[in-house]
Amino acid sequence: MLHEKHLLTDDGRVWLTTYVHNHSSQDYDDHGVWQPEKRPAVVIFPGGAYSFLSDREAEPVALPFLNAGFQVFILYYSLNEHSCSPAPLEDASRALAFIRAHAEEFRVREESIAVLGFSAGGHLATWIATQWNTPGLAERLGIPFGSNRPNALVSCYGLTTREMPSWSEHDDPVSAAPDTEWGQVMRDWPAEVSTVNYVGDHTPPAFLWATYEDTLVPIENTLCFAQSCRRSNVPFELHIFQTGAHGLALNADPTAYGFPHGNHPNVDQWVPLCISWLRKLFSF
Question: How far is the C-alpha of 77 from the C-alpha of 85, rounded, in Å?
Answer without folding.
Answer: 12
